[in-house]
Amino acid sequence: MPHLRACLQRLRWLMNPPLTVFLVEDNSHVRLGLIPALRDLIGAQILATAESENEAITWLASHKEGWDLAVVELYLKRGTGLGVVRWTNGRPGRQKVAVLTDYPTEATRRRCQKAGADAVFDKETELDQFIAFCQGLSEVSAAGLG
Fold this sequence. Notes:
The protein has helices at 2-15, 28-42, 53-62, 81-87, 106-115, 127-142, and strands spanning 20-24, 45-50, 69-72, 96-101, 119-122.
């Protein structure tokens, strides 16, 4: 029976693949909190993480088609999340970029959207909206509409 259960789980995964996420966050506490939250709340698969602009761009360059959502913090150890967002311009329409930051002023939101972000969320006050955004993407992905 365990073999049958594993086969059914694999079939379910093939029919409804999880939202694949690339996380760009230099704060280990935030990163270690977000990973299980995304897994548990929306069934996301976290592909990789990066702590700097260069590390993020290097990963994205070698995985151009292999992700659904990039979650990007603006202020990184080295470089900026805005550079990462700009680098994703020209990505396929199914791929989305969400900025999750501590400094979501209106000016910051405009800069992020102008750079190519699909959404900007405050880490402190808009986590519910961020999760809802991710759930919406997960549903679109599962329906094969992405």
